[in-house]
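Aim 2 progress. For 3-sulfinopropanoyl-CoA desulfinase, the working sequence is reproduced below.
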Amino acid sequence: MDFRFTEDQLSIQAIARDFAQKRIAPVAAEFDHKGEFPLANIQEMGQLGLMGIEVPTEYGGAGMDSISYVLAMIEIAAADCAHSTIMSVNNTLYCNGLLKFGTHEQKLAYVAPIASGQAIGAFALTEPQSGSDATAMRCRATKQADGSFLINGKKSWITSGPVAKYILLFAMTEPEKGARGITAFIIDTDRAGFGRGKTEPKLGIRASATCEIEFADYHASAAEVIGQEGEGFKIAMGVLDAGRIGIASQAVGLSRAAYEATIVYSQERKAFGQSIGSFQMTQAKIADMKCKLDASHLLTLRAAWAKQQAQEHGGRFSTEAAVAKLTASESAMWITHQAVQIHGGMGYSKEMPLERYFRDAKITEIYEGTSEIQRMVIARNETGLR
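Predicted C-alpha cells for this construct:
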C-alpha cells in the first residue's frame, strides 16, 4: 500500500492547516461561548475551495478527491469542531448528494453557490419523532396535477438550518410504499411556506447553528426533485455513507488536537519533583491515545480510498465508512476524556480548550448515524443477515 500523498493533496492540507491555525483557532473559544455562526470564516473557506473540495471546478468547487477532503477536514477539526461540522455538511451531505443525483442544470444552480462559499447548504432527514428510523418520517410532499408538490411537515436538528440558503430535503410522497415512497427535493429557504424554529442550545459544536424547520404548503416544482421520485431513501443512505467519512475525519482532527495538547502538558507539568509524563499511569494513557488516534486516522483514509474506488469502478463503501466513523468517534470520546483527566483541574477549566474538545467529541458518536447504527450496518454487511 502506498501511503504517500500527491502534491495536490498536500497542497489542500497545507491550505486548510494554515487557515485553521491563523483564522479559526484564535477565535474558536469565543464563537463557542457566544454560540455564534462564523459566517465570515465559512465564506473565506469557500473562497479557498474548502466548502466544495470534491466538487468539479465547473460547479464552483476545487475538483479534488476524497483523500484531499479527509486531510483538509482533519486540519479544520483540529482547530474547531464547529467549523468542521459546517464544512462536512456542505461537502458530503449537500454537495455530494446533488453531484451524484442532480442534473447539470441543478448542479449549476444549487451546487456552485454553495461550493464557492457564496451561500450555505443543509441536509434535512431527521424529524422530531424519527432519527435513526428514517422511514418513519411524517413530512409529506403531495403531488399536484401539474407535477409540482406541496410540502408540509417538520424536520429537526438541521445543521446550518438557521443560515442555509438551500436545503436537500427528504419527504414522503407515497407513504404506503415505506422507504420506496421517499423523494428528495431541493428547497429554497427564501420561498413562501418555509419557516425556521429556534436555534438549538447544544452541549458542543455551539458555533454550528442547528434548528428545526417547518413547511406549510411549500410549493416545489417538478424541476426541484433530486433524482427520481421514490429514490429519496436510497439517495439519503448513499449520502450518509460519504458523510460518515467526514465525521470520522472530524473525530480524527479533534483527537489529534487533544492528544498534542496532552503531550505538551505532560512534559511541562511537574508533580512530586518530575514531569507527570514520566508516571507510568500517564504513559499508559498516552500510549493508548496514540494507538487509537493512529488506527482512526488510517481507517478514515481507507474509507476515503474505498469511496474513490467505488466512484471509479462501482460498488459500495458503507462498511469501510461505518468502521471508520465508529472507531474514530468512540476514540475521540475516549481520547478527550483521558486528555481532560491528565490535565486535571486545568482540563476542566475554560481557560484551556480541553473542555471544549470533550464537549465536541460526544456529537461524533451521535450524528450521521449513532454508534449503535454503525455496529448494525457493519454486522449486517458482514453476515448478510437482517
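The CA atoms of residues 114 and 372 lie 32 Å apart. This observation will guide construct design in the next reporting period.
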